[in-house]
Specification:
Helix 1 (5-23) packs across helix 5 (87-101) and helix 3 (52-67) crosses helix 5. The chain has one domain (5-20, 32-110). The two termini are 23 Å apart. It contains six helices and no strands. It has helices at residues 5-23, 34-44, 52-67, 72-81, 87-101, 106-110.
Amino acid sequence: MMFARHDITKLVGTAIAVVALGLTTVGSAAADSTDDEFLRTLFAEGIMFSGKAAVIERAQVVCAAFSTGASPASVHTTMLTNSAMTPTQTALFMAAAVQAYCPEYADQLFS
């Protein structure tokens, strides 16, 4: 199924909003590591993975792509092409990755 560019942008924007709401709970345990919180977010969203290290590395790829100026649509397409995730899961994964590892790029998901 092909998505128009604005559909992907809306999907990614919605995903980051959903993930952000889930991550901003009052009184969350300060002892939780970023990796653990990221993995819990994926699990809560129904995104299954086989290796923790590999999925965390994949999240870092999302951040690296944004750091080079890649657009959300471009990152989404790349991540979708190289995974077994659905378009929605890919958008949620991207949003969780940005929220956990590179929140400085969150504004790009809404533009």
